[in-house]
Structure formats: C-alpha cells, structure tokens
Design goal:
Layout (H helix, E strand, L loop, with lengths): L7 H11 L19 E18 L9 E17 L8 E3 L5 E6 L3 E2 L3 E2 L5 E7 L1 H7 L8 H19 L1 H19 L4 E6 L1
Parallel strand pairs: 4-8
Antiparallel strand pairs: 1-2, 2-5, 2-6, 2-7, 3-4
C-alpha cells in the first residue's frame, strides 16, 4: 500500500533527486534522499446520492424490506506514478537547455468517503427488519450503502476529467521546477 507523500516544495525537491541521472542535478539539494513513487497532482471532491432498496419476494415492504436514501461525500486523488521512471524516460540535450520527460498516464486513487460529510437522508425499514436490528452490530445497514456511495464517487471521478487535470498539473510542476534549474525548454509526454 502506498503512503501519502509530501506535497509542495518538499515533494519538488524529492522529484529533482529522482532526476539525479541528469548531469549536474545529483547533489543539487544536499544529501537528503527520499523515495517519491508518485506525485499527487489533483484532488476532486464529490458528492453522490444513493437510493438503496432491498425487498422481500413475497412480503410487503411494511413487513420485510429496507430503503435508504444516502448522501455520500468524499475525495479522489489523481496521481502520476514516478516509481518506474528510468534513464530512457528523461533526456537532456548537450548544453542542458532542453529536457524531455516521458511519464505514465495519471491514475485515480480509490474514493475516500468522508463520514463527517456523509449522511442518511431517510431510512425506511419493515417490521421484521427493525426487529432484526435489535440483534445486529450494524443496525442501520450503513456498510452496504457506504460501499455503494464510494463506487459512485469513483465513477464520478472517472467521468470528471480528474486524470487529465492531474497530468496537466504534473506537467506545470515539472516545467516550473526544471526551468528554475536553468532549462529553457521542457517537454513532458504521457503514455
């Protein structure tokens, strides 16, 4: 499992150290070395509505059945995996004014449901379900609706263009970082 990585300036310094294969960059920031396997470039906040209904085949809803209307709020991060970046993926011209970097496409993380912003709008349960809740560790059946909310947030993130935004932000960060180190032209490609 990947751990959260530093952001901002510290993350940029780590990235430069990953480019130690570029002549002159190796010891630029001292001896501190950290492994940055991914650059978190974008985070999306999403809110979805889930209507989960479970019915019994031959019993009316008033006797057996549940319906939960739930608002799920959470975040999804978009990141670029830098762990496999190799010598062939970074090229610099002879006078060190132009650099070309090839990265894998951005990937979306899994949804992190925020319990402080997620809530059930309504819950309807049949008589037998209410009696069963007295003997249950999860009386309201929240786990199923939370899992469904997280799936809907993942779908919303895929449809939102978050991965494209992560690539754009990664490109901007790399261009700014490498230009501040004296390179005049930086080309970043994905794929």
């Amino acid at each position: 499992m990947l751990e959260p990585r530093p952001r901002g300036i510290r993350g940029s310094i780590v990235l430069v150290e990953r480019f130690s294969l570029v002549p002159g960059f190796g010891g630029l920031f001292g001896e501190e070395t950290r492994d940055m396997t991914r650059y978190e470039a974008a985070v999306g906040n999403f809110q979805v509505v889930v209507d989960l209904e479970k019915d019994a085949a031959f019993l009316p809803d008033a006797i057996r059945g549940t319906r939960t209307l739930y608002v799920g709020a959470g975040t999804v991060s978009g990141y670029v995996d830098l762990g496999a970046l190799g010598e062939r993926d970074v090229t610099v011209n002879g006078d060190r004014t132009k650099a070309s970097i090839r990265l894998p496409h951005a990937v979306l993380g899994t949804a992190a449901l925020d319990p402080n912003r997620s809530y059930a709008v309504s819950k309807q349960r049949g008589l037998l379900d209410r009696i069963g809740d007295l003997f249950s560790d999860n009386p309201a059946g929240e786990q199923a609706v939370q899992k469904l909310a997280a799936q809907h947030i993942d779908e919303a993130a895929r449809d939102s263009g978050l991965a494209g935004r992560a690539e754009k932000n990664t490109t901007s960060m790399l261009e700014g970082l490498l230009r501040s180190l004296g390179l005049r032209e930086v080309t970043v490609t994905y794929g």
